[in-house]
Amino acid sequence: MKKIFDIFRIRREERWLALVVLVALLALNALVLCKYYDLFTPITRWYWPLFIHNFHISGFDPITYSVVSDWLAGYNVYRHPLLAFYMYVPYLINMGLMKLTGYNCALYIAVIIQMFCAFYSMVFLYRIFREVIEVRRADATVLTLFFFSFAYVMVAAIVPDHFIISMMLLLIALYISGRRMKSGRSFKTWQTVLYFILTAGTSLNNGLKIFLAALFVNRRHFFRLRFLLLGVILPSALIWGTARVTYAKLVWPREMAQKKAKEEKKAREAKKAEEARMADVAKKAEEAKMAEAKKTAATTASLANNKGGDTAKVAADTVKKPTAVQHKTPAKAKRVRQGRPIGNGEFLRWTDITTSRVQSIVENLFGESIQLHQKHLLEDEFRQRPMIVHYSSWLNYVVEALVVLLFIVGMWCGRHSRFFWLCLSWFGLDMLLHVGMGFGLNEVYIMSAHWIFIIPIAVGFALLHLPKRFVAPVRYGVGLLTLYLWVYNVALIVKYLL
């Protein structure tokens, strides 16, 4: 047990970097606390609508706030099968704090979780550079800071969503995989099952990355019948079965109750509207009857006064004139939130086969993920933000091009590394999911924490294998990019939160 927790011990050479990142995380999370403290800390009865309707930082969902405040299987159980259960202990802690303080401490508990996961993401990425790739200490430090300068790494570290948890679990798995590759050791069955349950329980698609890691580490031994049955098929069945049972026992009854309540409310509103409509019709009929009676009386009086004069004209005047045609104002077109999906199932409805991939890659995948857009800053795509937002300055595109160029060079330099091919397999899985199938393509940047660590890892291989005359320009270029991205992204995040 001591050996398991020993990997979380901060080593001497990591302390200064750890301190810098910790201070930055404290400052950014403090801004979120200040923004939502008054609104979210009072104890109330209806937490779900309170958090969902009032928390606005990009497309992230504050479901963790709700689950920790009033426990329920609030996450999508098919995409996050065990995440709600992982949050049960934080929920119990919050219940105790509520009784002691008289305040809902969900914000503080979420911040602790976020900071812990972000902090150790930094630690394990640094160790990947030092122990797996084996770059210089200074290069490992800069590359780690380069990673944390990315916009949606920063944002993921300050929002109550699952992405920062997934990022830490993936980097731990990547670090352990790299160490085992270097030592020639394989993953044991129980280790694969443990990593899979922790990772897939948080985000199901990331569980596949654990199997890929086992494949690259164990190689042909991965295909042994015993390992496939106990290490792959059995945990997959358990995760899926848990998701099905959770949905049937916890989610479905709640959804049916909510549906019934909505239908009853809709029926009541429809009944009231019909009663009001009938009353209005009766009132208008009575008014029309009275008006007709007055017109008849006036006509009779006019005929009597004219003594048989031009009755035709009088009669013509009594004919009801046609009213002007009322042109209905066309309804405002509904804003398109995403392209046409492959299907309407639980997963397929989130896919997209029509949105431009080129624009999405430029502006979102390698754009917003790394540099925030000044227009529609951190807006939710499901509320105000358009699917595609363009940068205001050409400088942003230059920076994006440089980062992508470094990534491509790094991929070439790391092409002989089995560890880097493992990283590429994870990246390829995400690209197949997001760019190929279009899953979550409308806001693909919020999922960057699942894959974007491959960029600094690729740059690490570039610094290790490039000819010496190119190493210095790349090293200083990465340093300048890191400084620029930290200043640029932090300034915009602070601007939004203040």
Task: Give a concise summary.
Helix content is 69%, strand content 0%.
How would you summarize the topology of this molecule?
Elements: H1 2-6, H2 15-40, H3 47-54, H4 63-69, H5 83-86, H6 88-101, H7 106-133, H8 137-148, H9 151-156, H10 163-183, H11 189-202, H12 204-218, H13 225-306, H14 311-318, H15 357-368, H16 394-413, H17 418-436, H18 454-465, H19 468-497
Task: Please tally the helical runs, counting DSSP H or I stretches of 4 or more residues.
Answer: 19
Tell me the β content: under 5%
Q: For the residues shown, what is the average pLDDT?
A: 89
Describe the global form.
Answer: globular
Query: How many strands?
Result: 0
The major sheet is characterized as: none
| Spatial gap, N to C terminus | 44 Å
| Poorly predicted runs of 5 or more residues | 308-329
How much is the radius of gyration in Å?
31 Å
Helix content: 55-70%
Structural class, by secondary structure, is mainly alpha
> In sequence order, what are the helices and strands, one letter per element?
HHHHHHHHHHHHHHHHHHH
Task: Give your account of this protein's structure.
By secondary structure, the chain is an all-alpha fold. The protein is 69% helix and 0% strand. Helix 13 packs antiparallel against helix 14 and helix 18 packs antiparallel against helix 19. The longest helix is centred in the middle third of the chain and has 82 residues. The radius of gyration is 31 Å and the shape is globular. 36% of the residues are buried.
